[in-house]
């Protein structure tokens, strides 16, 4: 059986994909104007690289992959070494040693690898516990999207939900997980 060959239709991108791409971007950057700009940059980059489209993925999947790179580039830009040098971190909060450090000069952790490994395992167990306390559908959506890294479109098809519904469930799951972790892990 021959594999389906997808074709680009740039004239319909805004109508067919802008809402989906915007929702994808806003969930990751949490800034309305930035999300709009990233979608516009995605369309522009798509037009520029249309000749490289091989038709193996759907048009939307291809555009999402471009948008992902735009989002990653955005975060790399704001987290550049130059920017990090200006970030100050509290090291001591009171007493004679109170003060801030420039991030790149913060002393390295004194923990050893064994302690970190034990702590990471305990954290994983606590996170698993908190996920198990979520409503079943929230746990399923959160696990598929965040841990198993399924594409939004695939999750929506599998669970027969809209992308908006998916993001609402993920937001609620994260809120409940944050509360559970604060109550059971961070207060130790």
TrEMBL record:
Family matches, as Gene3D superfamilies: 1.10.1740.10, Winged helix-like DNA-binding domain superfamily/Winged helix DNA-binding domain (1.10.10.10)
Top-level taxonomic group: Bacteria
Segments forming domain RNA polymerase sigma-70 region: 14-77
Domain (RNA polymerase sigma factor 70 region 4 type): residue spans on this chain: 125-177
Record keyword Transcription regulation present: yes
Gene Ontology biological process terms in this record: DNA-templated transcription initiation
CDD domains with a match to the protein in the record: Sigma70_r4
Keywords assigned: DNA-binding, Sigma factor, Transcription, Transcription regulation
Pfam families in UniProt: Sigma70_r2, Sigma70_r4_2
Gene Ontology MF terms: DNA binding; sigma factor activity
Family: Belongs to the sigma-70 factor family. ECF subfamily.
Protein's UniProt name: RNA polymerase subunit sigma-70
Species annotation: Polaribacter gangjinensis
């Amino acid at each position: 059986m021959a594999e389906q060959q997808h074709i680009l239709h740039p004239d319909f991108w805004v109508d067919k994909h802008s809402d989906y791409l915007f929702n994808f971007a806003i969930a990751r950057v949490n800034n309305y104007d930035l999300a709009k700009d990233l979608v516009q940059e995605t369309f522009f980059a798509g037009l520029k690289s249309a000749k490289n489209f091989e038709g193996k993925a759907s048009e939307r999947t291809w555009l999402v992959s471009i948008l992902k790179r735009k989002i990653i580039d955005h975060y790399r830009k704001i987290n550049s070494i130059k920017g990090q040098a200006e970030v100050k971190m509290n090291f001591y909060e009171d007493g004679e040693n109170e003060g801030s450090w420039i991030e790149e000069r913060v002393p390295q952790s004194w923990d050893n690898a064994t302690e970190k490994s034990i702590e990471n395992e305990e954290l994983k167990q606590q996170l698993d516990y908190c996920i198990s306390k979520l409503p079943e559908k929230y746990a399923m959506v959160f696990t598929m999207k965040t841990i198993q890294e399924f594409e939004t479109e695939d999750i929506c098809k599998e669970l027969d939900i809209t992308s908006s519904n998916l993001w609402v469930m993920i937001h609620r799951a994260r809120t409940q997980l944050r509360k559970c972790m604060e109550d059971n892990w961070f207060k130790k």
